[in-house]
Amino acid sequence: MRMRVGGFRRLRVRGPRTVRWRLTLLYSSLFVVAGALLLAFTYLLYAHDGSGQVVGTVEGPRSVSGVPGTDPAPTLTAVVAAVREDQRHQLLVKACVALAVMALASLALGWLMAGRVLSPLRTMTASARRISADNLHERLAVPGPDDELKAMADTFDAVLARLEGAFEAQKQFVANASHELRTPLTLQQAVVDVTLADPDASAQVLRDALARVRAAGQEQERLIEALLTLARSQQGAGEREFVDLAAVVRDRLPEADSVDGGPRVEARLESAPVLGDPQLIERLVVNLTDNAARHNLPAGEESWVSVWTGLDALGRSGLRIENSGPVIPADQVAGLFEPFRRLGAERIGRRDGLGLGMSVVAAVVAAHGGRVWARTRPAGGLVVEVSLPRYAARPSPAGVAPPRAHVV
Questions:
Q1: Sheet-wide strand order for 264-269
Q2: Rounded to whole angstroms, how far apart are CA atoms 157 and 249?
Q3: Alpha-carbon span 89 to 46, nearest angstrom
Q4: Is residue 311 packed enough to be buried (19+ CB in 10 Å), middle (13-18) or exposed (0-12)?
Q5: Which of 2, 70, 294, 360 has the greatest number of CB atoms lying within 10 Å of its CB?
């Protein structure tokens, strides 16, 4: 019994599952409704039209004695009314038959028209089914006028372009991460093999080898921690709290001042309240300050770092870090926010940092709904600006519940 009820329910909810059938029924329904209204209007006009009625009457026969006959003849008005009633009935019957015939014809015409309208969609569906991760370079490329269907196809092509870029970036990221992780392992293996190959290695040589292996392991650990931070930042901010960018930067300035002999630090810190993840905000500040101090002029030259926090012209909380340093080509600035992207020779010679600092910064800013951009200085160095939604507390009268925070 339960199965029968379930089957009955399935039969009840089941209907035309294709867009073509739904469009066909829609076209036919509109035609039937419009035809019924037209026939009803015509019938009412005919029924209330009294121009053909005859007003005269025919008197019945009289008897010889002058007394009126007992069965007078029907009047001409009654005859005309009966004829019109019969005509109205025939008109109604014929109109209903014609409407039924045209309703069937409208189904056939609606089916043909719906198929013609949906033909580009079937072509796009067939093309989309052929596209997979291996041929994301293909596009629908629907020709024709700029109508809704072409706009949808162009939007789908744009989505495919973004997906292709994301897949390529992911492949490049995996390849770069594999290379970065393999380098310390290769170094460790080489140090161990060279040390073991020397049977007369002294204790000092062994200690030096262990120190180099330990340093390579620490580099791996820092890289893995940076990768985990990047993954966490890309997942979005977690528990959000009140964070003042000025306080976070103030705590990190001495650390930036002690790198490589210490560039001169100029700070103008005004309150910049932010509602965000404290750990991610701190990582953002640390990466920017460390990069500004590390990628600077060599020791012995006049190097400096300028830091500003406060509210920008739009009322958003802002952080701007500017530093001296070598001249950076303008066309390489956008690539600084890509993972494992370094200026100059990559992965050879001296490597400063892990190549993930700016990528983490961009991910943290995106997780908090902000913006980050960088520009070069003609004299050398870089300017990085961060804009985040401002945290503001709504004032409340005394004795009322604590104010709620809102993001501006």
A1: 264-269, 304-311, 317-323, 382-388, 371-376
A2: 43
A3: 11
A4: middle
A5: 360
pLDDT in tens, 18-77: 888 888 888 889 988 998 898 888 888 877 765 444 444 444 454 444 445 444 555 777
**Which residues, other chains included, contact 227 with Cβ-Cβ below 8 Å and sequence gap of 6+?**
177, 356
**Does the pLDDT at position 265 exceed 80?**
yes
pTM metric for this prediction = 0.57
Q: Would you say 390 and 273 are in contact if contact means Cβ atoms under 8 Å apart? A: yes
Give the integer Cα–Cα distance in Å for 186 and 357: 24
Residue for token pair 């309703």: 103
User: Which residues are CB-contacts of 20 (< 8 A; sequence separation ≥ 6)?
Assistant: 111, 114, 115, 118
How far CA 380 is from CA of 90, 296, 323, 328, 383, in Å, comes to 96, 9, 8, 7, 10
pLDDT at 237: 63
Contact in structure between 190 and 157 (CB atoms under 8 Å): no
The values of phi and psi at residue 375, to 5°, are: -145, 150
Quickly tell me which residue has 């964070």 as its tokens.
243
The pLDDT value given to residue 132: 76
Name beta bridge partners: 388: 317
**What is the Cα–Cα distance from 161 to 50, expressed in whole angstroms?**
72
Report pLDDT digits (tens) over 268-311: 999 999 988 888 888 889 889 888 888 888 866 788 999 999 99
The total of other beta-carbon atoms located within 10 Å of residue 131's CB is 16
Tokens linked to 150: 């072409």
**Confidence tier at 236 by pLDDT (50, 70, 90):** low
